[in-house]
Amino acid sequence: YTTPFAMSSPTNKRNTETTRLSSKTKQTKLSSSSNAEDDTTSAGENDQRMIEFGKLEALKRREAVLARLLADVRNEKLSALRDRPLTIGVVGFGRFGQFIAKTFAKYGRVVATSRSDYTAIANKMNVTYVPLSDPEAFLAEKLDVIVLAVSILSFDSTVRDFAKYLKADSERRAKDMGGISLPGPLVVDVLSVKEHPRQVMLDLLPPDCDILCTHPMFGPDSGANGWHGLNFVYERTRIDGVILDPSAAEADKDDSDRESFRDSVGQVHYVHENNDAHVEGMDRMERFLSIWEEEGCNMVPMSCHAHDDYAANSQFITHLMGRILGSQGLKPTPIDTKGFESVLKLVGTTTADSFDLFYGLYKYNQNSENIIAKLRGALDDVVDNLVEFEKKDKSAAPKWAKNMTISSHKKEELCIEEEKKEQDEKSFAHLGVQP
Ligand code: NAP
């Protein structure tokens, strides 16, 4: 039984094991005449070993079959996506709008609109361009999805303007269909804050528009070499008029299986509800999400509320540090360390984003002022620690007296200590003794 196994085994290690086994078998055969019971035991052990070796082979074969099955499902999914490509409208064709439109164009038709004239850039990307001053022409492009990629600051006014035209468009379509109302486009935002756009869209968009809140946790710099492994946060917010409440599902672990969800009044709905409009809305949302999935994003379903809680202590401080370091005018040197290269990278990526984006993060992050205050305090604490060390270091000439950067309370404390020392020295001198 050693031959087929030895021939098929690819590694030296396994061949050695096999040789060891076969010589053991020969030994067993030689001694078989003298002890039949021993022989039975050794054969049993060997069988057991062979089953163990074979188990790994069998598992690898099963793994290969499953990998082929997964590849088939992915291909089928891709062709389903490509068979019925979405027409995606992008509102706001600035830095981020252009970045995502380029990828969307691989999967469907893209129509962009913005304040500035981006016709030339759009043409190069195979994207149709319509000026923002003509929203009717934009909506006449029969859009399945509208992605809002304008600045955080202009989001409210942009949605407010668009809502009027979306409402008129839905009335026109209902009139064309003899009074039957058809679902409006799926509206998606990509803002770096989440609770603010969620509320604005729920308040202002007509009820026939489904809503998806998203935040791609990357941008033109971090996603320049592809989106693989980058986080994409999303919340299915409204489907067929039902407002979802994912925070209830997050709290209720039984509901977090994504097959069901609670609406804002606590009613449980199923993802595959027996209702045409719901199924169609869900399908359109899934097709849009599949684009990010196909690009390799790490899909993170999360409520807007939870997103903002996490982002408060990560995103704003990253941008704040990048801006602070950037304002020091740091430049590469011929002897940069890896650490300094990371600092320059942080400065580069954060200052490449617009100040509007930074201000939007500050304005809509309830924690931003607190973060700034804590950072100021932390700088004082770190410098104060240095001064404490310096005080104990007899070999160092104290810098603190001329050092304007230490905190005022530390400076006061050090002045009092210094005055006391001088007074003590004077008193001892008066008494004619050494302190
Ligand atoms: P931004 O400065 O936040 O937004 C620029 C876009 O907003 C441009 O399309 C601009 O249009 C439009 N805009 C600005 N003021 C406007 C107004 N009053 N009315 C209508 N449109 C206005 O820079 P961005 O990096 O392109 O970001 C766009 C959105 O994507 C933001 O909401 C941001 O939070 C989000 N996002 C950005 C990143 C990133 O890495 N940059 C990552 C994830 C999400 P014009 O160019 O035509 O003036």
TrEMBL record:
<feature type="compositionally biased region" description="Low complexity">
    <location>
        <begin position="18"/>
        <end position="34"/>
    </location>
</feature>
<dbReference type="Pfam" id="PF26213">
    <property type="entry name" value="TYRAAT1_C"/>
</dbReference>
<dbReference type="GO" id="GO:0006571">
    <property type="term" value="P:tyrosine biosynthetic process"/>
</dbReference>
<dbReference type="InterPro" id="IPR045011">
    <property type="entry name" value="TYRAAT1/2"/>
</dbReference>
<dbReference type="GO" id="GO:0004665">
    <property type="term" value="F:prephenate dehydrogenase (NADP+) activity"/>
</dbReference>
<protein>
    <recommendedName>
        <fullName>Prephenate/arogenate dehydrogenase domain-containing protein</fullName>
    </recommendedName>
</protein>
<keyword id="KW-0560">Oxidoreductase</keyword>
<feature type="domain" description="Prephenate/arogenate dehydrogenase">
    <location>
        <begin position="86"/>
        <end position="416"/>
    </location>
</feature>
<dbReference type="GO" id="GO:0008977">
    <property type="term" value="F:prephenate dehydrogenase (NAD+) activity"/>
</dbReference>
<dbReference type="GO" id="GO:0033730">
    <property type="term" value="F:arogenate dehydrogenase (NADP+) activity"/>
</dbReference>
<dbReference type="InterPro" id="IPR036291">
    <property type="entry name" value="NAD(P)-bd_dom_sf"/>
</dbReference>
<dbReference type="InterPro" id="IPR003099">
    <property type="entry name" value="Prephen_DH"/>
</dbReference>
<dbReference type="Pfam" id="PF03807">
    <property type="entry name" value="F420_oxidored"/>
</dbReference>
<dbReference type="InterPro" id="IPR059064">
    <property type="entry name" value="TYRAAT2_C"/>
</dbReference>
<feature type="compositionally biased region" description="Polar residues">
    <location>
        <begin position="1"/>
        <end position="13"/>
    </location>
</feature>
<dbReference type="InterPro" id="IPR028939">
    <property type="entry name" value="P5C_Rdtase_cat_N"/>
</dbReference>
<feature type="region of interest" description="Disordered">
    <location>
        <begin position="1"/>
        <end position="46"/>
    </location>
</feature>
